[in-house]
Design goal:
Layout (H helix, E strand, L loop, with lengths): L1 H11 L1 H6 L22 E7 L12 E7 L5 E6 L5 H11 L9 E4 L3 H4 L1 H10 L2 E4 L3
GO molecular function: nucleic acid binding
Protein name: Integrase catalytic domain-containing protein
Organism: Austropuccinia psidii MF-1
């Protein structure tokens, strides 16, 4: 009973809250992502991994490219251990060739998206990489 009373008092006490500093890793600034003005201008890229091998090439992952404007997904079968070059070719051949050049790519901090190759590709096309918080 007393533990609960003390805990409630500390939660309500301004001085206790000021002195209680977080020791965890500092979070980055949250930046609102602008709504795209046209389809395929801004996309979210992520991988679904751990799938059972399937198809004649035994694909075990799926690259998902999601258009933020039209809410249209593209599902591209791939391998979990594909390098950034294979991923870039897959996106170029199967997505960009029939959509538009993406100007904003949202993704996690996967090495396939943060490699030097992708940095050069983004620089050539003027695309910006934004990181998701998930």
């Amino acid at each position: 009973m007393w533990q609960q009373v003390v805990a409630e008092y500390c939660k309500a006490c301004d001085r206790c809250q000021e002195e209680n500093k977080s020791t965890g890793k500092r979070l980055g600034n949250m930046i609102k992502i602008q709504n795209p003005s046209r389809p395929w201008e801004s996309v979210h890229i992520d991988w679904v991994t751990g799938l059972p091998p399937g198809g004649n090439r035994s694909y075990n992952s799926c690259l998902v490219i999601f258009d933020r404007r039209s809410k249209t997904p593209i599902f591209l079968p791939c391998h979990k251990d594909d390098k950034s070059m294979e991923t870039a070719l897959l996106i170029w051949n199967r997505a960009i060739s029939w959509t538009f050049i993406f100007t904003n790519i949202i993704g996690d901090r996967d090495p396939k998206l943060t490699s030097a190759l992708w940095k050069n590709i983004r620089q050539i096309f003027g695309a910006k990489l934004s990181f998701s918080t998930a």
